[in-house]
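thread: overnight batch results

M.L. [08:02]
morning all. the overnight job finished for the chain we discussed friday. pasting input first so we're all looking at the same thing
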Amino acid sequence: MLSEGGVGPWKLDQDRASACLYVVAVRNVNGETDEEGVDHRAAFMIGKISEILEAGDRHVIAFGEYATLAIPNAWGGSRNPVAYTNLGTLQIDPATLAWRKVPARRRSSV
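M.L. [08:03]
and the structure it wrote out:
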């Protein structure tokens, strides 16, 4: 995600996603990426959304800054990898996080 500067491509509601300020990444042991040392369903990263890019009939959520997280059981396990919630529900206060700039991204996947 960091080398790409974003997450996806996913099917999502463009209007709802465009209203969001953050994207939270949660570990799925059955997914394509492997975040070693992160438990299944745990939130491990948050990104400040910079743009939402079209990728065919899907979208990539790009972010310019990120912070690491360690929130167990943040995902309920639904089949859809995209869920809309708020940071309060996840008990995340963005003012308390150590934000870092994302390295220059490659736009090869979009």
